Amino acid sequence: MDHEQKRTAAGIREAIAHAPLPHVHRARIRHRNHMAVPWHEVTDCDDMLAIDADLDDKSSIICRAGLLLLAGGTGSWRVRDCMNKIAGVLGVTVSAAVSLTTIECTCIDGHNSFSEVVSLHTTGVNTERIQLMEEFVRDVQKRGDTLTVRAFHDRMDAIEHTPGNYAPWAVGLASAAACAAFVFLLGGGPIEMGCAFVGAGLGNFMRRIMLDRRLTHFVCIGVSVAVACLVYLGCLSLLSLAVKDVAEHEAGYIGAMLFVIPGFPLITSGLDIAKLDFRSGLERLAYACAVIVVATLVAWLVAMMVELHPDDFAAQGLSAPVMFALRFVASFVGVFGFSMMFNSTYRMAATAGVVGAIANTLRLTLVDLVGMPPEAAAFAGAVCAGLLASITGTKTKFPRISITVPSIVIMVPGLYMYRAVYYMGVFQTLDAMEWIIRAIMIILFLPMGLGLARALTDPDWRYCS
User: Fold this and answer.
1) Which residues, in sequence order, are bridge partners of residue 49?
2) Is the separation of the CB atoms in 193 and 202 below 8 Å?
3) φ, ψ for residue 103 (rounded to 5)?
4) Structural domain spans, the chain
5) Is the distance from CB of 114 to CB of 60 less than 8 angstroms?
6) Which one of 108, 177, 260, 293 has the largest count of C-beta atoms within 10 Å of its C-beta?
7) Which residues form the Threonine/Serine exporter ThrE domain (predicted)?
8) What is the Rg, in whole angstroms, of the alpha carbon atoms belonging to the chain?
9) Rounded to whole angstroms, what are the CA distances from 376 to 268, 335, 365, 373, 442?
10) Lowest pLDDT segment from 23-32, 153-162, 304-313
């Protein structure tokens, strides 16, 4: 060991000897299971034009853009389309395999190739990020040949660190209004709607608080569902002190937890499978099924503890014109609330609300007045939503998915799913199978309707490549 190494070793020993020991009771070990990628540190040519940069720097730009869009909750086709457009500007060929949380990307430039894998630590929905990324891609197509590598990453830094539009209390209020509207559309009355409003609001507020603290995903879902259901029952108990026969309104308690129904991954899974992106589609479907299982099992446990049963709602007793008008209003409120939960701006949420109100009112009218099967009506409603979203998207420049998915989330049969799990829990197999099949049929027809509308109106999506 030479003199310099001896001095270094001595300095290390002295530093260790004088370092204060951590307090045993206060020490908390924190580590990341998914390490963040230091994008600015892995680049070699920060101040060089991106079109002239090395292949690895171009690959980092392309992969990061795809990852930001994937974090918004969009499907694999849109992620790959974004990466292809940026790659075209940078003069490389990209081949990407996209899943729910991971992108495997290979960039090819002549005889050279560079591969990398990037992943998210969780999944979620952020429609404003989808819009910002689409604006970013359009800007890159216009003047990407004038941007440096650093400029690309600075723009993506700004998008990544854009805060959410709504505080936890606002998200809770949005989910409260959406679930109350959902309960009315299912057949509930003022008491069910009021109790669901309070339960869903507090439940989703709790979920948002836990998600902001990075608690594990399914724990947040289970706790928020339990809170929503228990608060609903608490409100019902308080009302029983002043209102007679409140027990007849227990049927609406499932509406308090409908804010966790994973409409976005359910719909995008079907769209991905339609484009033969089976990896992404099946992963999204598995995630959606896992969320549904956790939520419905927690709701079933609460129901078993307090001896609740998923009975039908009492008749609303409204005339056809009044019912039509109230359904339109409730559909708008429900879709608007769900859009806010997806971080849509007010204008985007209002646009989705109008589209959803028209499509969902059409669906319910076809069932009641025409006698159409609910599954076929769901298909017709989804086609209507897709066609209207195409028209509004052309005028507003909103991402189509930020309009279509919220507008048909309200058609997802959350009540059917819960009833299926409830009857499985009490071993009434035939009833469970009936509700499972009903739910699956409607869920299958929703992305089919959107896919048909997309194929009719979008030539880029119509073809395989």
Assistant:
1) 148
2) no
3) -125, 125
4) 50-141+154-160, 168-462
5) no
6) 260
7) 328-453
8) 25
9) 20, 21, 12, 5, 8
10) 23-32
